[in-house]
Every structure is written in structure tokens, then in C-alpha cells.
Amino acid sequence: MRRIALVTLVVDDYDEAIRFYTGALGFRLVEDTPRPDGSRWVVVQPGAEAAGSALLLARAKDEAQRARVGDQAGGRVGFFLHTDDFARDHARMLAAGVTFLEEPRHEPYGSVAVFQDLYGNRWDLLQPAD
């Protein structure tokens, strides 16, 4: 096994999720393919290259799945977005309307701030220490 390719993120709506992840977070849309059952195979990925992990944006199909939208990690930070320029990406995300839940911190392991996605899932924006 070499890497985790995709992680599923349950969302309310494909198009609003695509707009948030590509617009506010700067991810790129890798795939958006209709499926015979009316769902779509939607993959977004940070960065310009096709390397690393990506998110499969999966629309909730029933009440159990809808209950998980925005709470996929039980209120903990569940996703970690690494950057090579914390100040640049933090400023860009703020300008795009991303909600940060704290001021940036500079820890021994790097610069970090917790933000939430459009559904309330918590993420770390993190520039690891050199």
C-alpha cells in the first residue's frame, strides 16, 4: 500500500461544496461525473499536481448520512491542510470568507489555525516547521 487516495466527505449539495472547496480553499476540481443513480462522482484536490490525497464529495442519501454532514469527526479537527506559505493562504482564505475559529498560532511543530468548512467540519491550516 502506498497512500490513501481518497477520503469521503459527506455534503448536502454537490455544487455548493464544489464552489467552497475550489473557490474558498483553492482546491481544483479533478472529476465531476454523473452516475446512473442520479448521484455524482465528485473529486477535489488541493494543489496543482495530481499527487497526494483528494476528497470525494458525496451527497448525503438518507437521514443517517445527513446527520453526519458537518460532524464527520465528532467536533474534533478531522482534516489537516498543509501549506508552504501560511500567511498567504490564511489571508486568501479570510478574504474568501472562510471562518477561522482562532487566531493563528506558532507552535514548535509549525504555524496553525483551525477553520471550519461550509458545513462546520473543523480543519487545521498548517505550515509545518522546517
What can you tell me about this protein's structure?
It is globular, with a radius of gyration of 15 Å. The protein starts with 5 loop residues before the first strand and ends with a strand. The protein has 130 residues and is of the alpha+beta class. 19% of the residues are buried. The strands form two sheets. Strands 5, 6, 7, 8 and 9 form a five-stranded mixed sheet that branches. It has a four-stranded mixed sheet with strand order 1-4-3-2. Helix content is 21%, strand content 38%. The longest helix is centred in the first third of the chain and has 11 residues, at 14-24.
Beta-strand portion reads 35-45%
Mean pLDDT metric: 95
Distance between the termini: 27 Å
Overall structural class, as computed from helix and strand content, comes to: alpha+beta
Helix content: 10-25%
Q: What radius of gyration results from the CA coordinates?
A: 15 Å
Specify the overall morphology: globular
Number of strands: 9
SSE topology string: EHEEEHEHEEEE
Tell me about the largest β-sheet.
5 strands, mixed
How would you classify the quaternary structure? single chain
Quick structural overview:
This protein has about 130 residues and is an alpha+beta fold.
Keywords:
130 residues, alpha+beta, 5-stranded mixed β-sheet, 4-stranded mixed β-sheet, 3 helices, 9 strands, 21% helix, globular
Topology of this protein?
Elements: E1 6-11, H1 14-24, E2 28-34, E3 40-45, E4 54-59, H2 63-68, E5 77-82, H3 86-95, E6 99-100, E7 105-107, E8 110-116, E9 122-128
Parallel strand pairs: 1-4, 5-9
Antiparallel strand pairs: 2-3, 3-4, 6-8, 7-8, 8-9
